[in-house]
Write a structure and sequence with these properties.
Shape: globular
CATH superfamily of one domain: NagB/RpiA/CoA transferase-like
Strand content: 5-15%
CATH topology of one domain: Rossmann fold
Helix content: 40-55%
CATH architecture of one domain: 3-Layer(aba) Sandwich
Distance between the termini: 60 Å
Structural class: alpha/beta
Largest sheet: 6 strands, parallel
Oligomer: single chain
Bound molecules: iron/sulfur cluster
Strand order of the largest sheet: 1-10-7-4-2-3
Length: 471
């Protein structure tokens, strides 16, 4: 499967610069991420033994991934016994082909979809459209960005970058009359009215999967809108695309997973709907699909097992790390050029789609560690970002100027004598460029802002001379 897009150094810098200058976008990003962060903090404070639960969850995820083939096979066995058809997709293209084959066999022309990052990852909508099949996103946020012709900008809030004014404009165009941005209920009602007819007309419903429970072969969907249930039950055929890492051994483990997922994502104790699907409609059931297809998507994931990056597969896509990341909060999701943005996106995007194409992403972090603190599975994202940076150096992917600057820094910092010598040299050499507000160098650094001058006495000297005791 071709890469979804790319984020080279210059592309990321350009996109981030444009995003930072966009006042509307900055307001929308700050409002949404702050809301998520506050909600998560409150929800975890109210959860007894939250830290212990997170430790327990990490152990569950690590143990499951260490035995992934076993749990995947068990899931296949139990889901098949329940009447579902399980498909294995090695690549994104394989998953697309499986969906297209099923759609062709059933003569499907219209597909309803509930929110799924896996389908974003494999560009399913583009493939459906290219084959004369109309995909309709039915999650409100996904529908907004489908109307706008944009990719998602957040794992759980695909349209968080949109203001209500922009949403009203999109909806007005769709319904052919002006809608007020102040009437949120009215906007939602319009979306509901337009989407309802699609649910009934669709020949196929496509969803993702938050987790697949091996013990019973059950697909679990966690949603906040009723669309997920309509997509998976109204059309005669339901296809779910699930990353292979989303396997959960049993319902006990699922209880821990679910206790942390919504709290970390939106701050809710539980999402509005938690839907468990085990096979298609039974003969004595009044509704539900005739066929359920579960596509287990690898697309590069299995290559990460047994490597220093295996831990990234513990991710449950809650989005908490995005909301606390200082880079994501300013640059927004689109700068990452991938459906997966923020700290987890900066790790898994290069791993799944290529380090060269996404060379900027491991650098798009201050390494402050807020992502690791926020992660329900305590995934050590900073460690993997550093490891990816080392991989970039080894693969000569950094621009030569940065590479040379870093080699020089390593040389200077590698010995106290060299450090002292170059500090003295720098103090002497900075004189022609010193101004009252700092250093102004003849080359552009940080939009022409002044840099701090080297201090007359370095910290080491103050320390050695005991002058710090007096401060
Ligand atoms: S890395 Fe952790 S915090 Fe980030 S989306 Fe995944 S589970 Fe959530």
């Amino acid at each position: 499967m071709s890469n979804p897009s790319s984020a080279t150094m210059s592309q990321f810098r350009h996109s981030a610069t444009v995003a930072i200058a966009d006042i509307q976008l900055q307001g929308a990003l700050t409002g949404a991420t702050n809301k998520f962060v506050n909600g998560r903090t409150t929800a975890l404070t109210e959860l007894p033994h939250a830290d212990a639960l997170r430790d327990h969850f990490k152990k569950i995820r690590a143990a499951t991934l260490a035995n992934l083939p076993h749990y995947l096979e068990l899931f296949e066995q139990r889901a098949t016994a329940a009447g579902a058809q399980v498909h294995w997709a090695q690549t994104g293209q394989d998953a697309v082909d499986i969906v297209l084959n099923i759609a062709r066999q059933r003569g499907v022309k219209l597909v309803t979809k509930s929110k799924s990052m896996a389908t974003e990852e494999i560009h399913l909508n583009t493939a459906l459209e290219a084959n004369g099949i109309v995909p309709v996103e039915t999650d409100l946020g996904e529908w907004i960005i489908q109307l706008a012709g944009e990719p998602p900008s957040h794992i759980i809030g695909p349209a968080i970058h949109k203001t209500r004014h922009q949403v009203a404009e999109l909806f007005s165009k769709e319904v052919g009359r002006p809608l007020s941005p102040d009437d949120i209920d009215g906007l939602t009602a319009e979306a509901r009215r337009l989407l309802r007819t699609q649910f009934l007309a669709a020949g196929l419903g496509i969803s993702g999967g938050n987790l697949g429970i091996a013990e019973t072969g059950t697909l679990v969907l966690v949603t906040n809108e009723g669309n997920g249930r309509l997509v998976t039950s109204a059309p005669p055929v339901h296809i779910a695309i699930i990353g292979i890492e989303k396997i959960c051994p049993d319902w006990d483990a699922a209880a821990t997973w679910l206790a942390l997922l919504a709290r970390s994502a939106t701050g809710q104790p539980m999402s509005i709907y938690t839907t468990a699907i085990t096979g298609p409609r039974r003969p004595d059931e009044p509704d539900g699909p005739e066929e359920v297809h579960l596509i287990l998507l690898d697309n590069g994931r299995s290559q990460l097992t047994g490597t220093p990056y295996e831990e990234s597969l513990q991710c449950i896509r809650c989005g908490a790390c995005l909301n606390v990341c200082p880079v994501y909060k300013k640059a927004g999701g689109h700068a990452y050029g991938s459906p997966y943005s923020g700290p987890i996106g900066a790790v898994i995007t290069p791993l799944l789609f290529g380090l060269e194409e996404y060379a900027a992403l491991p650098q798009a972090s201050t390494l402050c560690g807020a992502c690791k603190d926020a992660c329900p599975a305590r995934i050590d994202l900073p460690r993997m970002l550093l490891q990816l940076r080392q991989d970039e150096v080894a693969a000569h992917l950094l621009p030569w100027r940065e590479r040379k600057a870093e080699e020089f820094a390593a040389y200077v910092l590698g010995s106290a004598g060299r450090m002292n010598f170059f500090t003295k040299l720098g103090r002497w050499g900075q004189r022609p460029f010193q101004h009252d507000d700092g250093l102004k160098l003849p080359i552009s650094v940080g939009d022409g802002r002044a840099l701090p001058s080297l201090a007359p006495k370095p910290f080491r000297q103050l320390w050695a001379e005991g002058e710090l005791d007096n401060t």
